[in-house]
């Protein structure tokens, strides 16, 4: 399959979407990013890497980081995670508070903000310095020590993070947050601020494609069973209340972030990342989703 040519075609065919979405502006530091950037990277099973456009321009990982923190929590406490967070799609926006009252402080899944905050709480309990643990984990998977937290983005989100602060405090009132809310938020805002590019992303996510095994470092990260489960969660919950539509149109387990990145996988076959900062109304990259839809259509390679 000529992936290079396919990426060229996708770039051409999605160009018309430029200017049709909106860069996230509720985090002021993200509003500065120029909207017309577009990058793609693809890592095939044989290790061959294909890139297009702004594939090496760093952007804010935002919610894509939720897959990595869940991975670390999974390694630490295994299925005990499910005592604190569910594994059902929420059908609500990523930052919604509404289900938490009825469901007594147990978030629907680890990929909405409330769920990721519980995972952050778990990491705060397990490690004296969870930010260091996460950064090491990401740098190692991507084999890139230049990956860092973006202090400006983290600070900007902290200053405007009233909703995330409400979520964490609300869950604490139900006993589902054990640490100081400030500490939990600090890890959460920092994880979201991780600054990396599409090439870093495909390398970081390739252990998910290879059933839990990081072939770059020859290290097992998750068991096959847990890796399958992570894929299932990405498929059903990775795009918030657009997860069903993403499965319908694209057919890959994936995870998006409001920085405009999406990482996705076809298990056993390839890892793909796209970045285009303009978002649709669900907070997912408008051009990024279309690019992935075209990719699976042109290659016939969805998981189904
Ligand atoms: N940092 C963002 C927030 O908490 C992450 C959201 C996202 O990427 N969907 O609102």
Tell me about this structure.
- By secondary structure, the chain is an alpha+beta fold.
- The chain has a single domain, classed as Beta-lactamase, CATH 3.40.710.
- The protein is built from 13 helices and 11 strands.
- Helix 5 crosses helix 8, helix 8 (162-173) packs across helix 9 (181-193) and helix 11 (224-237) packs across helix 12 (243-249).
- The model has no long low-confidence stretch (mean pLDDT 97).
- It binds glutamine.
User: Any idea what the radius of gyration is?
Assistant: 18 Å
CATH topology group? Beta-lactamase
SSE run: HEHEEEHHHHHHHEHEEHHEEEEH
CATH architectural group: 3-Layer(aba) Sandwich
Number of helices: 13
Strand residues, percent: 5-15%
Structural class determined from secondary elements: alpha+beta
- Tell me the distance between the termini: 19 Å
**Largest sheet, spatial ordering of strands:** 3-2-10-9-8
Q: Give the overall silhouette.
A: globular
Count of discrete structural domains = 1
In short:
The chain is of the alpha+beta class and 304 residues long. It has 13 helices and eleven strands.
């Amino acid at each position: 399959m000529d992936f290079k040519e396919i990426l060229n075609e996708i770039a051409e065919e999605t160009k018309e979407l430029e200017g049709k979405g909106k860069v996230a502006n509720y985090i002021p530091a993200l509003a500065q990013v120029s909207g017309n950037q577009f990058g793609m990277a693809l890592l095939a099973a044989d290790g061959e890497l294909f890139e297009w456009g702004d594939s090496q321009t760093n952007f804010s990982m935002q919610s894509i980081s939720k897959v990595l923190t869940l991975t670390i929590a999974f390694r630490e406490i295994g299925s005990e995670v499910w005592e604190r967070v569910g594994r059902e799609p929420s059908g609500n926006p990523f930052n919604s508070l509404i289900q938490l009252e009825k469901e007594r402080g147990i978030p629907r899944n680890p990929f909405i903000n409330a769920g990721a905050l519980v995972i952050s709480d778990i990491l705060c309990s397990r490690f004296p310095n969870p930010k260091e643990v996460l950064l090491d984990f990401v740098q190692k998977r991507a084999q890139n020590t230049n990956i860092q937290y973006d202090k400006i983005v983290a600070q900007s989100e902290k200053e405007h993070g009233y909703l995330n602060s409400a979520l964490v405090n609300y869950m604490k009132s139900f006993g589902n947050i054990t640490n100081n809310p400030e500490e939990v938020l600090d890890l959460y805002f920092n994880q979201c601020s991780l600054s990396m590019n599409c090439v870093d992303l495909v390398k970081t996510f390739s252990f998910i494609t290879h059933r839990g095994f990081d072939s770059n470092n020859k290290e097992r990260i998750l068991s096959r069973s847990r890796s399958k489960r992570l894929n299932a969660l990405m498929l059903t919950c990775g795009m918030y209340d657009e997860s069903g539509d993403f499965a319908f149109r694209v057919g890959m387990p994936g995870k998006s972030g409001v920085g405009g990145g999406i990482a996705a996988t076809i298990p056993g076959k390839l890892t793909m990342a796209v970045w285009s900062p303009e978002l649709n109304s669900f907070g997912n990259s408008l051009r990024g989703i279309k690019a992935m839809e075209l990719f699976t259509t042109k290659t016939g390679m969805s998981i189904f």
